[in-house]
Protein 1
Amino acid sequence: MAKRLQHVIGDSRVNAQATRWDPVYNPTTGEIIGEVPIDDNNAVDHAVEVARGAFSSWAQTPILERARVMFRYRDLLEAHHKDLAEVVTREHGKVLSDAYNEVGRGIEVVELAAGAPNLLKGEVLQGVAHGVDTMMFRVPLGVVAGITPFNFPAMIPLWMVPPAIVSGNTFVLKPSERTPMTSLRLMELLKEAGLPDGVLNIVHGGRTVVDRILNHPAIRAVSFVGSQPVAEHVYRTAAAAGKRVQALGGAKNFHIVMPDTDLGKTVEALTSSAYGSAGERCLAGSVVIGVGGVADELVEAMRDRALHLVVGDGTDPATEMGPLIRDTHRDRVAGYIARGLEEGAKLVVDGRAHPIPSQGFFLGPTLFDHVTDEMSIAREEIFGPVLSIMRQPDLVQAVAVANRSDFGNTATIYTRSGASAQYFRDHIQAGMVGVNIGVPAPVAWFPFSGWKHSFYGDLHATGTDAFLFYTERRVMTSRWW
Ligand code: NAD
């Protein structure tokens, strides 16, 4: 029987009391590598109680000591960088180099958190009246929670946990039930770095466990990353329960290719953006708008690249694209290929016909041309290796089409013209903007988030926003007699 995963609460691994267990797969082989509890809602109450118990002493631990845990954690993550990447590839399927880079992005957030003594400094204004001074302190909230998606099992928990706990909060993490193992390994290393018991707790589960978190009266704030409908649900429910919420949602990312671009470099950037990680990235390019006469040449070059893309086991260095996360998701993505054809788009490369391994949840890269604005493949998040090409006569119209999307996670322009890049930067409605960058990835020292339906909330993930999100400001005015 597959290994049953346990919660981690306080100083122990806790057996779940669940009525439903879901298999955790290795998507490359289709093999079941574990079982995860889905509906042990009472574990949330237990974890919150333990996190509450740990809060006061952790919040009073000197900030330098909390930061030193982050320094040690950073070194341990670096020492285990490769084996963490292997855990990610095993349960997610992405190629090892991608998994390695994901862990690297997560380590950068730990480096950000190690700078907490600077970031958590308050402010003082002396003499606001005769003999009266005012000062502002940043204080932790208490127990906070994080709910994460399947597609970045290392990076996204690391967006949340290090800034939250270094600020003095205690944490309940609910990782994705489809990729729950990486979080357990991240937690082991954090304990090894010296984190006291109860500061970080992991509760596995699905929808009902999330709802218990969203309604738990002792949880002060919720960080969420996942699909748009769930992000909206999390935002509405947790906000109605009086919590601070940041909910990062789904995406439909537009890339605009100008006629003056370097076509070879653009094709490489687009291939990696659209097909890297099998298109299961919130920053994946999913619609390309070719401006002016560039589209025909672009489609030809993309077709050639897609047809020769090496699809297979992510642990093989020659592999460029791994499997999708589940067979059900692969079938859903294949359903979009059928819909694109029905809606009248031209199927240039059919991922269903690509050479793939005989086992696992694979689907090849797909390329559509002559896609129009109203087609579902241009509007809905597919979250798979399907790229749609549209055409527009000029940049202004291309940006207008991209801005009609409900989403605004990221957008990129490929050009050699500063003026085009500047117009794009100033008019595109997206939170993460790229110029000649296929995936404008999060940089830990900056806030990360999309706009429009890609984000519900106010303060973004990482950067100084994270420290504002996970702390309360207290202002004291004093005089001495
Ligand atoms: P998902 O929304 O299915 O799941 C995310 C989390 O929510 C999981 O922990 C899951 O257990 C929980 N959940 C699922 N359904 C729920 C429900 N009905 N009620 C309450 N909780 C529920 O997302 P996913 O498939 O794991 O991840 C992929 C999605 O995440 C894509 O839409 C992608 O664009 C998005 N994403 C966004 C960002 C970003 O930064 N904006 C980053 C990564 C992924």
Protein 2
Amino acid sequence: MELIPLPAFKDNYLWLLHHDGHALVVDPGQAGPVHAALQRLGLTLDGILVTHHHADHTGGVAELQAATGARVCGPAREAIPGNCEPLRGGDQVQLLDIHWRVMAVPGHTRGHIAFFAERVADAPLLFCGDTLFSGGCGRIFEGTPAQMLASLDALAALPPDTRVCCGHEYTLANLRFARVVDSGNDALLAYEKHCRQLRAQDQPTLPSTMGTELAINPFLRSRTAAVTQAVQAQDPSARDEVAVFAALRLWKNNFS
Ligand code: ZN
Ligand code: FE
């Protein structure tokens, strides 16, 4: 089983997973990079998993399905191109002989889903689209801060060795903000150094692991004293945990 992030657009990753000549791809915003990888590796595309409706995650779906006949599995609550099998939180999908558990993770979009597998090769695997990023989280375009916080809580409860496959290479920009919010966090500084080295060599910082994210991601740490106090220094009106999380997200939106 091999997991490959295919770069697309400016900073997207289209995740390709393959085994024994069969592949699945997650969030193909473009068909070109997927076609090229299938050809180069001699793979048959069995399935296309889609986390949410944004064009940078779905733009290549119809073309890939037409060319390969692959199944398309995506959120029931959103309009997905191609002939899409509708999925909701709690559903299961069998693809590449792997049992994928569908999680509803609304916030970035209203119907956003994530795909989790208990064991792929030797560790759990999560495709979380634009809900959780390394060192950050997606913007709340359609849902509410309370929904996004609950979605991140659900992801945070997955095993610490879960490999976290996100939709974008936003890690360094996220960590620059994280350092301001969680300034006493040594794990964060060490992780940033590690990620800088990877990017300097043009390597992806992903997948991350859930254990790493729990240690360094301010959006999974908004209830810690350090992050809560930093947020309240910016916005003293943020009292309860949802208000703190909302203020943290807003702070990041305006951070440069
Ligand atoms: Zn998106
Ligand atoms: Fe995106």
